Amino acid sequence: MLADDTAIQAQLRVKRRIFFVSACMILALPLVRLLITGAVIPSLALVQVLWSLSYVLLGVCMGKGVLAPWLAGTLAAVVCVPAVTAIIHITGGPASPYFVTIVCAPLIIALFAPDSRLPTRVAFVGMLGAVVVLNVLAGVPPRAFLQQTFVFGCVGAFGLYGGRTYRRLRDAEKVAQEQRLNALEQLAESERLRLRAERERAEVERLVLVGQLASGVAHEVNNPLAFVKSNLHYLERELLDADGAENKAELRELLDETRQGVLRIQQIVTDLRRFAREGHASTEPSSPSEAIEEARRLASVRLRSLGEVTLDITPGLPEVSLGQRHLVQVLVNLLLNAADAVEEAVPPRKARIAVRARQVEEGVRLEVEDNGTGIPLEALPRLFEPFFTTKPPGKGTGLGLALCHEYVGRAGGTLTAENRPEGGARFVLTLKEVAETASAA
User: Fold this and answer.
1) I need a surface site. Which of 33, 81, 203, 272 has the fewest CB within 10 A?
2) Which reaction does it catalyse (predicted)?
């Protein structure tokens, strides 16, 4: 609304300026005549001064909002035609040097109200009437000025048609501008919807991962809870049994086991809560070593019962450009996929999942490999496509690897998959160092 008001005020200032400039030009006419002829015709000067003052008054009234622009333009035409007619009559009628200006009246009036047809039409009709009146006052026979009136009418008609064409072009341009603005708004809305859908898709996959991790929580929590409960029963029996011999070393060992069990439960709950917490992922650099450790802890609630996870991490790895939360999510996804691959392998086998990290020329290279049956060759080209999965119906969403590939690609890294010669699959994650990314920028 504020922008529209500003545009309207700007248009009013331009139209008001047209009235003031025209008034100045009209006042300049007697001065030019005085310089050329050295004489002043009082009646002529009076008409020109009154004409000029009327335009100043119209401009002021329109600028203050007293007159609408179309009404001010119509009044300008009503004033212009009689004033020009009087000037021509005073200076010689059809023989006046100003006679040709009468045909320009519709074109001149079009400047004052280009948005309205009425002022130009009034000026056109007034121009034809003025030609007839001037010729009649000069005693010219009608047959003699009929052709002249027709020519002037054709010129005025061109002026009317030109004004109509201008208005159509202006309206078409306004419609085109509105369509462009609507298209931009639709594009912006589409981009907002795309980003929201992308966030929701990432959130769904993250919650799927949380669900997969949570499936192993019962087993992981029940084990420490079992010996915590057993130890508490033993402590209760020993402390309440006054006749029993006290064994401080055994009690100390039981308390230590109890404490370790409680800490294990606390760690599992803390990791899951942090991973499941909503919010935007950080774009700050991350430590591969810390991300691997966190991912291993999160995935251990599922992997512990399947086999072993070995880590081979080169000390002192530099930070990488992928954010900590996304890097952990990628690694957890790869570890859970490895667990699924081993779990579905025939014949059954104990899982041996290895995670390696080392510095290479391209940055930091991370590998996650398993001893499952590998990836079908026909599935390798489509492995990172959204909604493509090799898992049985109801077990995979087809979004996990696609999101991992997208996260890594945005950070300038690569994620590839291959089959190991000795069996199983290997996922290779290459990320740029932060220093390298900064220097490239």
Assistant:
1) 203
2) ATP + protein L-histidine = ADP + protein N-phospho-L-histidine
Residue 291 CA: distances (Å) to CA of 208, 285, 322, 332: 19, 11, 11, 10
In CATH terms, the fold of domain 280-440 is Heat Shock Protein 90 (3.30.565)
Residue 422: how many other CB atoms lie within 10 Å: 7
Token duo for residue 327: 């890097």
CA–CA dist 394, 413 (Å, integer): 31
**Amino acid symbol at 58:** L
How far apart are alpha carbons 371 and 163 in whole angstroms? 82
- Whether this model's pTM surpasses 0.70: no
Q: Beta strands 351-360 and 307-313: pairing type?
A: parallel
The residue written with tokens 């992308």 in the block is: 198
Q: How many CB atoms lie within 10 A of CB 13?
A: 10
| Total count of residues recorded for the chain | 441
Tokens coding 360: 């290479």
Domain 215-278 classification at class level: mainly alpha
Residues of the chain with CATH 1.10.287: 215-278
Q: Which helix (H) or strand (E) holds 288?
A: helix 288-303
Distance from C-alpha of 7 to C-alpha of 30, rounded to nearest angstrom: 37
What is the percentage of the chain residues whose pLDDT exceeds 70? 78
Number of Cβ atoms within 10 Å of the Cβ of 265: 18
Nearest-10 crossing angle of helices 142-214, 400-410:
120
- Report yes or no: 387 and 205 within 8 Å, Cβ to Cβ: no
**Per the structure block, which two tokens stand in for 73?**
């333009």
Residue 344 Cα distances to 311, 374, 393, 423, 424, angstroms: 23, 11, 14, 14, 12
CA distance 282 to 3: 38
> What pLDDT is recorded for position 211?
60
Where do the CATH 3.30.565.10 domains begin and end in the chain? 280-440
Highest mean pLDDT among 131-145, 260-274, 277-291, 361-375: 361-375
Three-state secondary structure call for residue 427:
strand
Burial 313-343 (b: 16+ CB within 10 A, else e): eeeebbbbbbbbbbbbbbbbbbbbbbbbbbe
Cα 399 to chain centroid distance, Å, stands at 25
Bridging pattern class, strands 414-419 and 351-360: unpaired
Q: What angle do CA 173, 178, 180 make, to 5 degrees?
A: 95
How many whole angstroms separate alpha carbon 79 and alpha carbon 67?
Answer: 15
Q: Name residues whose C-beta falls within 8 Å of residue 372's C-beta, 6 or more positions apart in sequence.
A: 338, 341, 342, 344, 345, 423, 424, 425
Contacts of residue 399, defined as CB under 8 A and 6 or more positions apart, other chains included, come to: 201, 204, 205, 208, 386, 387
